[in-house]
Structure prediction request, 545 residues.
Amino acid sequence: MSSQRTIYTNEGKPWIAIAGEVHNSNSSNVAYMEEVWNQAELLGMNTLLLPVSWELVEPQEGHFEFQLVDALVEQARAKGMKIIFLWFGTWKNAQCSYAPEWVKKDLVRFPRAQVEKGKNKITLKNFYGMSYTTLSYLGEETKKADAKAFTELMKHIKSLDEKEHTVIGVQVENETGLQGAAREHSDLADTAFADQVPQALVDFIKANTSTMEPLMKNAALAGAAGGTWTEVFGAVAEEAFSAYYIASYVEQVAAAGKAVYELPMTVNCWLDKGEEAGKYPSGGPVAKVMEIWKFAAPSIDAFAPDIYVQNFHEICEQYQKLDNPLVIPETAVHSYVAPRMVYCIGHYHSACFAPFGFEDMGQPFNAMQAGLFGVDVSDPLLQKPQSPMEYGWCSRTLHCMMDLLASKYGTSDLQAVISEKMDMSPLDMSKGMAGMMAGNPENDTMMFGTFGFKAVMNAPMIQRKDGVCLIVKESEDTYYILINGSLLAMFSVDPEKPNYDIIALEEGAFEDGAWKAGRRLNGDEAASLIFDDYTLLKLKVFTYA
Ligand code: DGJ
Prediction:
């Protein structure tokens, strides 16, 4: 079901964005960014996700300013890094705070969304009493103006960067959707809502029910094969309507930009946590309406979840349906972030992994931010800060292995396991090897044909609980193993050759794409493969009768 591929490239080769997203305001100032680039470098990142906003790009209508874009690209080149720009246009967290003054002030030409008929344009008030307001997704003039600004941006990036290719992708808008109601309620919206659903959309929906989330699936199966939004989509009609119009809007913006410069384009998503639509931004690309987005926004290369919830892996699974490459543009910087990065690359073969606000990595847990990000704080491990040094080691290691890893994307030669998906109740060592081998093979064992590895993370001698293990099979008898917080066991299930011997086991690192051996591990070190620190190994084995 997973598409397991990267959408990014560098010099014609696949690029895995081992990335970070900066805090919202940092890329608005080049001098401020100097230190942020340094931090990213220490954290081993190869790509930064940087906001570029409509208000700064087009401060007056038709007058474009790209000095900031130029300077950010220069800074990236000086560090040998890549950029994915985030277009903060009509939507930023379902609001219009990044629209230019001339858009914000003209409420007639650029109408705001009405969450209640004829009422004020305020969708909600936040915790601090600040008004939330958003532009209407039915605003034709707004859509044209946004598409024009975005096109100018893409034209500029092309003229600046087509050869060097420092900018490898663009996110179109940021967390689209409508807060406060499942759909807009202007007269225009009411008329459109009472209208017929485009038949091509109905046909697409009917043909794609197998991948759908239960709510949408039930509605799609029970709904009419043509008719109004309510007739076709029943209980989810209002959200489906919003999704269709927002996706179509984003498509127009993205397609206009792609027509001048074809870079991979993504949209990110404020997830729904089971609330009713409008509590989370209705019509944004949540898994429930992904089929509608897929239909209405073909220029989008990946629907990308912003994951701050504890059921991280469930979300990753959801976002691989419909052949969607896994791009994680935002996730929390807490203690699981390094193992999650390793796992996302090793297991989901993700195109991008980026902790949000990585500038804070290593800082003590901040409950205010946890609230802001919607982090569920009931797991104490989530509150432990991530060591920046360890994160940097993981990023650099994965970056140096990129060619090998990318060549194995989409195949079973690249696998990973993580403590979060394992039974971590303390292992009873008195049962010896048999006890150690018990468990849940789906989550703790990596099989490469008839040869397998099990990463035991709940053994008493393993101190840490944030274990992860990624294994890539390079050739028939040779494996690279990135491991931490695990006891590594290996075995053969080949009935003809049930025994194995280690031929060579080395610690080491990749330099310029080539293996550079460190210690040769043998004797005591090879007899008990216990790793309580991040380590990269090269293993050569053989099996025999
Ligand atoms: C999700 C948004 O996409 C980010 O820009 C940022 O606002 C974070 N939430 C948390 O603050």
